[in-house]
Amino acid sequence: MQSIQANNYLVHFNENAYEALNKHLKENKYSNLFIIVDTETNEHCLPKLLPVLETDLNIEIIEFEAGEANKNIETCIQIWHVLTELGADRKSLVINLGGGVVTDLGGFVASTFKRGVDFINIPTTLLSMVDASVGGKTGVDLGNLKNQIGVINVPQMVLIDTQYLETLPQSEMRSGLAEMLKHGLIYDAAYWKEFLDLQAIDYNALDQLIYRSVEIKNEIVIQDPTEKNIRKALNFGHTLGHAIESYFLESEEKTTLLHGEAIAVGMILESYISLHKNLITPTEYSEIKTAIQAIYDQIEFEEKDIDPILELLVHDKKNEYGLIQFALIEGIGKIKINQSVENKLILEAFQDYKS
What we know:
This protein has 355 residues and is an alpha/beta fold. It contains 14 helices and eleven strands.
């Protein structure tokens, strides 16, 4: 597979990935190498990576506990301390091996340690391959508020090796699939159609579907690296999805949702809003809702859940001048950004989802 040129770095795939990595290690005079993993990728993915590294550099492994609950500044502080104790300097290289939590947090740690050291991301989940691999967003959560602290800073390269997906449970594969569905809905109607009959998908072609998803996100980000305009399209499903994810993360009565599970709900809700703003047809809405509900379990919402979710919208990073901004679809494969939505319509969307 041909590498994809992103903003100031390349995304390499499968057989080209480690060749590019070892070439980079050979050509750059790094002082030492730190690999950041979580407890899951330390066990399942690191044994695959270490044997293919061709370097004489001293390699140190830094592990933290897996899970969104640990994507916070406290974990960063611990890692900054470990880097300091192990003698990391400005010429160190950090490799982040893991899902979106690892690449987001590890990228932020590297971008801020000694005002920035080089880092490379190796995403190991479907979600991180098609989402966190492109765009340079790094950061951590602030309490239950998603990705409130961070910087945009690109890695030296991203390596996508789809063999890591063999270690994933089906729930994590479905979580990543949500972002792929989103890419079709906002940008490529033909790509969306590929997912309407999951039974018919040739999973030998999964690599090509992942490649196209990365391509779509990259084409959008290149036009607008700092999210002033068209990059906001990538937030479809995320305005409500992130609020739902945050609410379920903080509520002791709720089971924490995977990112893609929350985004799947968000896409249905925001498609309903698109329908009632006359941006999509009833047929298109029915197609979207039916396709997503065929993949994801129904999430139960009680009446008392809705107000706290709406309150969390106030903290959404996309808000400007105190107004909540939605990215809505304008027909399948097109997007309309900077859309304000009344609470009444959001409540109607929840009622429709529950019906």
